[in-house]
Amino acid sequence: MFSTAFLDLPALQGASGTVTLPGSKSISNRVLLLAALCQGTTVVHDLLDSDDTRVMLNALRQLGCGVEVAGTTVTITGLGGQLKHQDAIAFFMGNAGTAMRPLTAALAVLGGDFTLSGVPRMHERPIGDLVDALRALGCSIDYLGHDGFPPLHIGPPSLKVDAPIQVRGDVSSQFLTALLMALPLAAKEQDIVIEVVGELISKPYIDITLNLLARFGIAVQREGWQRFTLPAGSRYQSPGTIHVEADASSASYFIALGAIATGDGIRIQGVGADSIQGDIRFMDAAAQMGATITSGPNWLAIQRGAWPLKGITLDCNHIPDAAMTLGVMALYADKPTTLRNIASWRVKETDRIVAMATECRKLGATVEEGPDWITVHPLQQGQWKAASIHTYDDHRVAMCFSLAAFNADQIPVRLEDPKCVAKTFPDYFEALFSVAHARPQDIPVICIDGPTASGKGTLASRVAAALGYHYLDSGALYRVTAYAALQAGLTLEAVDEARIADLARTLPVRFEGDTVWLGQADVSDAIRTEQAGMNASKVSVLPAVRTALVALQHSFQRLPGLLADGRDMGTVIFPDAPLKVFLTASAAQRAERRHKQLISKGISTTLDSLRADLEARDARDSSRSVAPLKAAQEAYQLDNSLLSIEASVDQVLTWWQAKQPF
Ligand code: DC
Fold first, then answer.
1. Directed axis angle between helix 97-110 and helix 25-37, to 10°?
2. Which has the higher per-residue pLDDT, 641 or 434?
3. Were 134 and a residue from 47, 139, 582, 600 both cysteine, which residue would form a disulfide, CB within 3.0 to 4.6 Å?
4. CA–centroid distance, residue 542 to ligand 1 (Å)
5. In a 3-state reduction of DSSP, which class is residue 373?
6. For the CA of 617, the nearest atom of ligand 1
7. d(Cα 278, Cα 320) in Å, to the nearest integer?
8. DSSP string, 158-194
9. How far from each other are the two terminal CA atoms of the chain, in whole angstroms?
10. 597 has a pLDDT exceeding 90
């Protein structure tokens, strides 16, 4: 997951490959609640692991359900319609509407002493229609802040279920879903009827609810979309085991990717055209815009068809979440695209009509908007603008605007607060980068070269962490090579040059955080000694060894970018890197730092001998015939003798930012 302040997406060119998507949020949270209300145990496979499901799982634990998590398989032991204890419980719902609404209904029917609150945005998301319906049923619910919005307090009910319960259907379908899931608790002696007032929006989500209720033994009778009856004697029954489909709304980004990007196409694993999720119908809209889509059980394959895409006018009431993705596809179309009947966008994680309009305009597009519609005009080559996309703590804004990186002007796109995707798809960007291609010259490399013990490693890895970039410690490759050569019984001299080079060419080295693996062996400590550094310096003067390590070093240049540290990153390995830094510190300073480091590890040494070693290595690294240690001509010099690590990091980030178009 990217927890950086922003993520810069380089200009992307094409995409191909397979993505396996995380489980559906809508299905996951419904299944969790139904499993909790059941008697007995339900094993849920492929559950989404995200902020919203964690909110639900925490709530279930607080209620006294058994919750066992093993990867994406979660075992829930239900309450059997009965609370385990009567203590007051305060639930924190974050910004998870799919947890807040159904839990409110279930808790209100169960009764107790509960408070439900969330993040500030949750306290702006309406819940009044659901509360009204529950109050009419005899539930005791009080507003703790503003009328009509969370936070709420729930007390014990005195249920009266003889009259039909009315609920508005035109603000959020989650109100009806909440009632449908909670009311079986009350349908013991007699039928319970729910009547929808106003036109029901987002009907496909009700289909998911009915489908899952059926899986849990509740057969709801429905007359059109107006009247729903829970038969007397309804009882939740665990299906024992249940699989969660991949999230069809998450699939929309990869369907769009297949439609926009050149390449061999995208295959999506985990969800197919026969999905129970309404957002799967996004595939029809994408096909209308030009995508070529084929599907089988549990998979979709998408290829670019019409290009440019075709602008469309579409009633999006049936695919409210995925429709945002159409808004960004519209930028690549031949004429404007109008998305209609999307009033629900205004009450989601953010006001999504405002968000889409504002951010598309930043990219250069003309956008018109009304109370429940938006028109996005396409952008031609030459019209795209570099933009820093604000994401409003809305996962879908972040994910759909990542598709702007395929723009014809090859302009990078900055996404602010990329971690907001964690709401439904924590590894979204990893999945995107696993299939998207960029031209090598568009994947940024920042080089930090300098002498030994100048603090390159710390600086480079901190800058990499701040930008979400990969990190290459090229010195470690020379250290591992020397280590492997000695293990193989070779000397580190020119006589063995060809054989050391052979070893280096196929070095089975892997970096995992701070751990360095050579094949199955953890060599992290072995290659970090002073002697190992000296050995590395020896093999690094051999030209054939340096050549053998070039391809391996280049392979670290991957999306979204790279921080490379060493001696010749800027001069030889990445000569076109857009930022090169040459780090220096006085020999005295460096010896002192290294001394402190070693002492803290309990290794005894003297300052003088360390300084002599450093100077010997500097001399060898700077005087060798191939790729000697020196600053690239255009490198920024950074003497960090008197700087804190934070100050050095800030300096490099400032230089980097000055080169960005945002
Ligand atoms: O950065 P370091 O101390 O881990 O590097 C160990 C040795 O490897 C260094 O003395 C010279 C060599 N080296 C190199 O020649 N080129 C690089 N890009 C990195 C390291």
1. 20
2. 434
3. 139
4. 12
5. strand
6. 10
7. 9
8. ----SSPEEEE-SS-THHHHHHHHHGGGT-SSS-EEE
9. 23
10. no
HEC string of 596-615 equals HHHHHCCCCCCHHHHHHHHH
Residue 24 beta carbon below 6 angstroms from any ligand 1 atom = no
Q: Does the beta carbon of 437 sit less than 6 angstroms from any atom of ligand 1? A: no
Tokens 């992290």 — which residue? 524
Ligand 1 atom, smallest distance to 541 CA: 15
User: Which residue would you say has higher pLDDT here, 338 or 85?
Assistant: 338
pLDDT reported for residue 605: 87
Mean pLDDT for 560-584 is 97
In angstroms, the CA 171 to CA 130 distance is 10
pLDDT of 530 > 90? The answer is no
Dump pLDDT digits (tens) for 136-189: 999 999 999 999 999 999 999 999 988 999 999 988 889 999 999 999 999 888
Q: What is the largest CA-CA distance in the chain?
A: 95
Confidence of residue 86 (pLDDT cuts 50, 70, 90): confident
Q: Cα(228)–Cα(176) distance, rounded to whole angstroms? A: 10
Q: Which residue in 216, 223, 172 sits closest to 194, CA to CA?
A: 223
Of 321, 496, 565, 618, catalytic: 321
pLDDT of 279 over the 80 cut: yes
Closest CA to 26 of 34, 17, 18: 34
Find out whether the beta carbon of 537 lies less than 6 Å from any atom of ligand 1.
yes
Rounded to the nearest 10 degrees, the angle between the axes of helix 428-435 and helix 248-260 is: 30
Torsion, Cα of 324, 328, 331, 333 (10° steps): -70
Mean local confidence (pLDDT), 310-330: 96
Cβ atoms of 326 and 339 within 8 Å: the answer is yes
pLDDT at 255: 98
- The DSSP call for residue 23 is B
Count CB-CB contacts under 10 A for residue 343.
Answer: 17
Lowest pLDDT segment from 371-380, 490-499, 541-550, 610-619: 610-619
Secondary element (H or E) of residue 37? helix 25-37
Q: Which helix (H) or strand (E) holds 370?
A: strand 367-370
* Closest residue by Cα to residue 537 from 607, 602, 452: 452
Residue 460's contacts (CB-CB under 8 Å, 6 or more residues apart) are 446, 448, 471, 473, 563, 564, 565
Domains of the chain with bracketed CATH? 6-22+246-439 (3.65.10.10), 25-162+173-184+237-243 (3.65.10.10), 441-658 (3.40.50.300)
Check if 321 is active-site.
Answer: yes
The predicted structure's pLDDT at residue 63 = 94
Whether residue 658 is predicted with pLDDT greater than 90 in this model: the reply is: yes
Q: Which atom of ligand 1 is nearest to the CA of 457?
A: 1
